[in-house]
Amino acid sequence: MRAFHGGLGHLIGPGAALAFAIALLASGLASSSVGTYAGQVIMAGFLRRRVPILARRLATMAPAFLILATGVEPTHALILSQVALSFGIPFALIPLVVLTSRRTLMGDLVNGRATIAVGAAVAALISGLNVFLLAQTLTG
Questions:
Q1: Most buried by CB count within 10 Å: which residue of 21, 59, 89, 90?
Q2: Helix (H) and strand (E) counts in the chain
Q3: Range of 50's domain?
């Protein structure tokens, strides 16, 4: 990322590089907020547990701060973080398909067989692509 930031600053100017850095920070904070809120809704709704907001924020931000503190090269850290984050998708998608397929939970809004089949296929495809991504990242 440092190379992109520096290249952007060289090509367009320091203002563009600063705007990129601010936009990247805002994007990360927004993503963290959405993930934290989604976790709160799931914990409160399904598990009937409440976790204080400070504990949730620390749990979601601690890995990023730990990586920054260790001095890992930013571009490599970004790639690894995206690989790690991609593995969260099946953990959300598979329960989504399973839970929305239960008539006892969804009532009249339960998924039909076609939706279940497509959802299962998409979940399997994404899971397979994640395994491929992990293999490519670790070997290359």
A1: 90
A2: 7, 0
A3: 1-72
The distance between the two most distant Cα atoms of the chain, rounded to a whole number of Å, is 59
The first and second tokens of residue 136, run together, are: 């490519």
Give pTM, 2 decimals: 0.54
The answer to whether residue 136 is domain-embedded is: yes
Q: Which amino acid is at 125?
A: L
Contact 71, 2 (CB under 8 A): no
pLDDT in tens, 69-85: 888 777 777 777 778 77
Question: What would the DSSP string read from start to end of 19-86?
Answer: HHHHHHHHHHHHHHHHHHHHHHHHIIIII-----HHHHHHHHHHHHHHHHHHT--HHHHHHHHHHHHH
Classify residue 77: in a domain, yes or no: no
User: Quick one: 66 and 4 in the same domain?
Assistant: yes
Residue type, 90: P
Same domain, 92 and 130: yes
Stretch 96-120: mean pLDDT, rounded?
Answer: 93
Question: What is the C-alpha separation between 133 and 83, in angstroms, rounded?
Answer: 7
Does a structural domain hold residue 29?
Answer: yes
